Amino acid sequence: MDEVSASRLLRGAFAAHPAAYVCQQLIQPVLTKLVELRHTSSLSHSVQRFASKLTRAQIIQLIEAGMTPREALQRLSSLEAQAPQIYAKQQRTRKRMKTIPPFERLIDILIEAMARLDEAHAQSILDEAFFYYTVEDVCLNLIQPVLYRIGELWASRQITVTVEHLASNIIRTRLSYLFQTTPNLRQGPGILVGCAPQETHEIGILMLALFWRRAGLNIYYLGQMIECQSLLQEIRKLRPGLVCLSATMRTSARTLAEVAREIDKIDAPRPDVCFGGSIFAHEPGLTRAIKGSFLGLDARQTTQHIQELLQKTL
């Protein structure tokens, strides 16, 4: 139980998101989990002391986020009061489900919820999936197939672009939240991760950045449409071990190749370049034009590939 890390995580969440969002997506699940632990196992005195310290830290963060002390106490009291009710509802749901829900079923009901623009139901399905499965399993066996199916439905005009945008936004927001709330250990060589210039599709590379941070790698996520000259400037400043870029279109694959050539001109020690993206599955010949290591098409193996590339930089 690392109180310092927990407090740092809390501060980071409040810095990145509105207070109401942190209360709903972070503090409430933590309080509900404490209720579950009290029901399923005896909490030691040290755990209870840790929880009480965390509660005080939450109040401080709420005040710093703009609430009055009274509002902060009322908000936290409300969250604590709701926790047993939420836990009881979760238990009723789990009792009705005699087996762990298969991904095939979760895919169908998640797409149905998104097609109805029912964001609340879609979020609850994701919550249930993350309860039963690991982050990596949910990403690869639920989120990826859902995105593929949504894309196919949009291409065949069975859903509107509005539905496609809602689905992408729900998933991007969830992945971003998971990434931001995963502690970055800042150990080992830095890895700059993002989309090539002109590339706006970031869910795939954001997912990989999440996997790598969860594996303990030192990840800097830069987002969409990286600007070449500013990237080169940061490389000279940070001296990362790797730069990993993604492309899903032919145009962004070309800009990726240009960035890789510019990185190769930097004075040593310069980072190695690695890259990936769906365009290389459709046009594998494009990889030959890029000076760097292709990560391949198996997302599960990219973490090991990245770790092997880092070893070569040491």
Descriptors:
alpha/beta, 314 residues, Rossmann fold, Cobalamin-bd, cobalamin binding, 3 domains, five-stranded parallel beta sheet, 67% helix, Methyltransferase, Methionine Synthase (B12-binding Domains), Chain A, domain 1, Meth_synthase_dom, 7% strand, Cbl-bd_cap, metal ion binding
**Residues in helices, as a percent range:** 55-70%
Number of strands: 5
Q: What CATH architecture of the largest domain would you give?
A: 3-Layer(aba) Sandwich
Structural classification: alpha/beta
Q: Which whole number gives the mean pLDDT?
A: 82
Q: Which strand order does the major sheet show? A: 2-1-3-4-5
Poorly predicted sequence stretches spanning 5 or more consecutive residues: none
Q: What percentage of amino acids are in beta strands?
A: 5-15%
- Principal-axes geometry comes out as globular
Helix-strand pattern: HHHHHHHHEHEHEHEHEH
CATH homologous superfamily of the largest domain, by name?
Cobalamin-binding domain
Number of helices: 13
Largest sheet, strands/sense/barrel? 5 strands, parallel
CATH topology of the largest domain: Rossmann fold
CATH class of the largest domain: Alpha Beta
State the domain count: 3
| Rg from alpha-carbon coordinates | 22 Å
Taking the alpha carbons of the first and last residues, their distance comes to 32 Å
Organism: Ktedonospora formicarum
Domain B12-binding: 188-314
GO molecular function: cobalamin binding; metal ion binding
Protein name: B12-binding domain-containing protein
